[in-house]
Amino acid sequence: MAGTTTMNLVEAVRSALEIAMESDDDVILLGEDIGKFGGVFRATAGLQERFGTDRVIDTPLNEAGIIGSAVGMGLYGMRPVPEIQFADFIYPGFDQIVNELAKYRYRSGGQFTCPVTIRTPVGGGIRGGHYHSQSPEAYFIHTPGLKVVCPSSPRDAKGLLLSSIRSDDPVIFLEPKPIYRRSIGEVPDGDYETPLGEARTVREGDDVTLIAWGAMVPLCEEVATRLAGEGIECALIDPRTLWPLDIDAIVSSVQLTGRCVIVHEAPRSCGFGAEITALIQQRCFLHLESPVLRVTGYDTPFPYTLEFAYLPSAQRVIDAVQTAVSY
Amino acid sequence: MRLRLLSEGLEGLLERLVASGVIGGVKLAGAARMAMLGVGLALQKGDMLFGTRRDLPAGLGRGLSVEEVLRQALGREGDPALGRGMPGAIQSSNHGIVLTDGNVASHTMHAAGFGHAARLRTAPAVGVALFGSAAQANGELHGALNFAAVYKAQTIFVARGLRDDEIPFSEAADAWGLPVVTVDGHDGQATHEAVSAARGRALSGAGPTLVDARVDGATDGAIDAARLQIQGGWSAEDQVSVRDDVRATILEARAAAEQAAAIQDHTMLEAVFTDRPWFL
């Protein structure tokens, strides 16, 4: 019987990649410095040594090229897993993602599929400035044909990445780099999949529903613990798969609590929190005791010096929860 | 020659359908027709043709029928892509054809990736990218040439259409690290031979080739016709006979396509994902 191993989130990503490559010769990795160097965050450390240069491919520094050639490999029948070193650098490949990868199945009436999983680190709080800190999930959620995943724990990172790689749909797999090493937990040994499209209820509660993903999940766990000391019980839901969203899990919690606070790093306007808010008001209108609130990044480019003023803090989330409770 | 006439006749019909408002715009092969036909005829089963919807003649060379093209253009059942592309943007897994209407060079990267995968699998297949002069100013073409060369991808790049004022490919071949074979794009047979040779080279593990089949002016098909006449394989009687046959083929295909049922509204929500999600 398989046991568990304590590891951090980036080690869990590496474990998933290794298992995916062991179990399927069609899985190949490609990206900048992922081979000999093992990736800037070490997510692919040792994999080229083990699987060879044909399966762990160091590429030219060309994001459109990485993603475009992954599309071609996917059309051939492989399961490429390209890495974009930072999500901030995914934009040169935006056309390949939005116009090609996402649309191949649809525009061909289902004849062609692109089972490509693009891994990329997201999020701020690492002193990276605006080219190493952004959270671009909304662009990809807005693109029909893409699944968007963002784990917040090592266990989920491994299970969700294995599911993503084995999915016949293209997946944007967003890895919250601020907690790459800070998020540590028990991870099942061996091969397992965490289904896409299923949220995780991190914490039960009947006063307010917190919804958060990526690095905002541990922040909200801290908030929920602190507020429990004041007699406010927060439920915390981590969608894990941002799209397709597990709306049922959210609805059942909000119908119980009547209050909801959504927390994300990306700018507020047209961020994913806006879509979740719309879905909640549509499905939970008569259950709501207060407006759905959002705690997000500001509608500015990501500021280097002021990044911790920009990012949602525990205090901002607490303020929002108290606003909701006292409404 | 029949294929050339068929391609011309089909384009003529598509233009008339556009003029009468029945279908959206089409892009014409023009002076690139013979090169496109040569490419299509040179490919084999398992190969994948990546082009733009201007490259329809290459699709005909690859075995696409006139009726299939017209069903696609008219949005009728029988188009495996369910009417989702503009006229000529054929997507056919059966024929190994992907003709897009996207950015000018996006598809060249797919050919590079396809050829890379085929090389990794040591499969007897190539990815072929057809592109016009407009793509030469686009970074994705340069990226595709770079990627294909670095990984010795089983990929063939074919430049077709009018030769404008771009830097000659030969000037840049050293930078990309792949050979450039120049042929007269008016000469379908020469293009066919160059692409066939490039295919053999790719399958031997020697890497990609860039076939420069551009032309300096429009003398569509004259070389192949002249060659056939000199060889005694094409007479005035042949010309009349084949034209009649082509006309009949196109009329018959048009009738069949027009009688086919229209693509149904409910299909709009199909094939976004493998399984239909709750929001569709």
Give a description of the structure.
Chain A has 327 residues and is an alpha/beta fold. Chain A has helices spanning 9-23, 47-51, 63-76, 94-101, 104-107, 137-141, 154-166, 216-228, 247-257, 272-284, 307-310, 314-325, and strands spanning 4-8, 27-31, 56-58, 79-83, 117-122, 147-149, 171-176, 184-188, 200-203, 208-212, 234-238, 241-243, 260-267, 293-297. In chain A, the strands form 4 sheets. Chain A has a 5-stranded mixed β-sheet, sandwiched between helices. In chain A, α3 (63-76) runs parallel beside α4 (94-101), α8 packs across α12 (314-325) and α9 packs across α10. Chain A is globular. The mean pLDDT of chain A is 97. With 280 residues, chain B is α/β, with parallel strands linked by helices. Chain B is built from 10 helices and 7 strands. The longest helix of chain B is centred in the last third of the chain and has 24 residues, at 236-259. Chain B starts with a helix and ends in a 21-residue tail after the last helix. The relative contact order of chain B is 0.16. The interface between A and B is large, with 43 and 48 residues.
Features:
heterodimer, A: 327 residues, 12 helices, B: 280 residues, alpha/beta, 7-stranded mixed β-sheet, 45% helix, 12% strand
Question: What strand line-up does the widest sheet of chain B have?
Answer: 2-3-1-4-5-7-6
Shape of chain B: globular
Alpha-beta content class of chain A: alpha/beta
**Overall pLDDT metric of chain B:** 93
Largest interface: A-B, 43 and 48 residues
Which consecutive residue ranges of chain A, at least 5 long each, have pLDDT under 50?
none
* Count of alpha/pi helices of chain B: 10
Biggest sheet, spatial arrangement of strands of chain A: 9-11-10-13-14
Strand content of chain A: 15-25%
- In round numbers, the mean pLDDT of chain A is 97
Structural classification of chain B: alpha/beta
What is the number of beta strands of chain A? 14
H/E element string of chain A?
A: EHEHEHEHHEHEHEEEEHEEHEHEHH
Distance between the termini of chain B: 48 Å
* Shape estimate of chain A: globular
- Count the helices of chain A. How many? 12
Helix content of chain B: 40-55%
Q: Largest sheet of chain B at a glance? A: 7 strands, mixed
Radius of gyration of chain A: 19 Å
